[in-house]
Specification:
heterodimer; A: 4 helices; flat; B: mainly alpha; 2 domains; globular; NADH_UbQ_OxRdtase_su1/FPO (chain B); chloroplast (chain B)
Amino acid sequence: MFLLYDYDIFWAFLIISSLIPILAFIISGILAPISKGPEKLSSYESGIEPMGDAWLQFRIRYYMFALVFVVFDVETVFLYPWAIGFDILGISVFIEALIFVLILIIGSVYAWRKGALEWS
Amino acid sequence: MIIDTTEVQDINSFFRLESLKEVYGILWVLAPIFTLVLGITISVLAIVWLEREISAGIQQRIGPEYAGPLGVLQALADGTKLLFKESLIPSRGDTRLFNIGPSISVISIIISYLVIPFGYNFVLSDLNIGVFLWISISSIAPIGLLMSGYGSNNKYSFLGGLRAAAQSISYEIPLTLCVLSISLLSNSLSTVDIVDAQSKYGFWGWNLWRQPIGFVVFLISSLAECERLPFDLPEAEEELVAGYQTEYSGIKFGLFYVASYLNLLISSLFVTVLYLGGSNISIPYLFISEFFEITKAYGVFGTTIDIFITLAKTYLFLFLSITARWTLPRLRMDQLLNLGWKFLLPISLGNLLLTTSSQLFSL
C-alpha cells in the first residue's frame, strides 16, 4: 500500500505502540507526587499484615490445562496451511487432515476420561 | 569552473531533494499510523462513556453528566486523574515484571489493529497472514497479565494472573478454530480478502449465514478473551479484590483499563470483519448501492461511508457486550473451564469438519 515493504509498517507500528506506555510512564513520573512509607508499599491483603510470600506452590490443574492447550494449539497451527490450500489439495489431503484431527480427538477424549479437564 | 560549480549545485540540490523525498516517505508511513492511534484513542474514550451511560440506563441511574455535555469528557477526566496519581510499586514485588506487565498487554493489543480493514482497501497493512497475526499477537497479552500477577507478590494478584492465563488459553482454541473455518471459506487469511468474499449478494453474503455456529462460538469466546463480565473471573471482586490489578495504581492501572477496552473494541471489529461483511453496504438490490460502487474506488466520500458502516456494526456488538456485562451473572471457575473445553471446543471442531465437508462437495 505504501512505499515500504509489507512488514516495515509492522515494525513502525510496533515502535510507535511501544512508545505509548513509555510516554505514559514518563508523563506520570513527572506529574505524579511521590511520598513513600513502609505501610504504603506493603502488599494488600485485606488490611492485615501480609503473611509470607505469594510466590508459592499452586494448583497442578493449571499445568494440566496448559498441556492440553499446547496440544490443540499446535494442531490448529498445522491445520491453517491446509485450510488455505484446501482448493488445490483436494480430497486425499482432506482425508489425511481428518485422520490427523481424529487422532487428536481420541487424545482429547482420553484426557477427558482421565479427568485432565476437571477443575475440582 | 562555472560549469563545475553549477554541477556541484545541481548535485547538492539533487541530494537535498532525495533526502526530502525520504523524509516525505517516512512521514507518509507514519501519518496513517498516528491517525489510527488517534482514532483508537477516541473510540476507547467513546466506549468508556458508552459503558457508563448504558450501565446507568440499565440500573436506572443518571450516569456521568458534569464533565462536558452529557458527560462526554468523563473518560478523559478519569485518564487525566490517573496520570496525576502516585504510582506505587509494592516493596516486595519484582519491579521489572511489575512495570513490563501492563505495557506488554497494551502493546500486544494495539498491534492487532494493523490488519483491520476499516473501509474498502482502507487498511494499514494488508498482510497475507491477516487474521493469524491477530490470533498470534493477542496470545501474548496473557503473558503480560501473568507477569503483572507474579511481579506484584500478592496472593490475589497471583491467583488473578493464573486465572487470566488459564481462561485465555482455554478460549483461544475455539476462537482459532472458528477463524480457521472462515479462512477456509474465503481461501485466505488476509482480512481484506475475507471482507471481499462477503461482498456479493449484500446482506445474504455475510459469513454469519454460512457459519451460524461459528458465529455464536466466536462471540462467546471473544467475550471470554476480553475478560468481560460473564467471564471476568480473573478480576472477580468478591473473591480476588481486583485480580492481577490489585497492586496497581496510577497510570499503570490506567494502562490495564485501556487494554481491556482496546481488546473489546478489536474483538467487535473482528466480529464485524469476519462475520458481518466489514464495510459492505449490505443491502442487496438497492438502487443506491451502484452509486456507492462508483464512488467507492476513488473518493474520500466512499471511504467515509465505509468507515461509518464498519463502526456502526462494531458499535452494535459493543452495545451487546456492554449490555451482557450488566445483565448476566458471573460464572464459576469450573463452569468457565467446562464451557470452554467440553462445550465450545467440540462444537467448534465439529463446525470446522462440517465446513470442510460442505466445501468438499462444492469443490
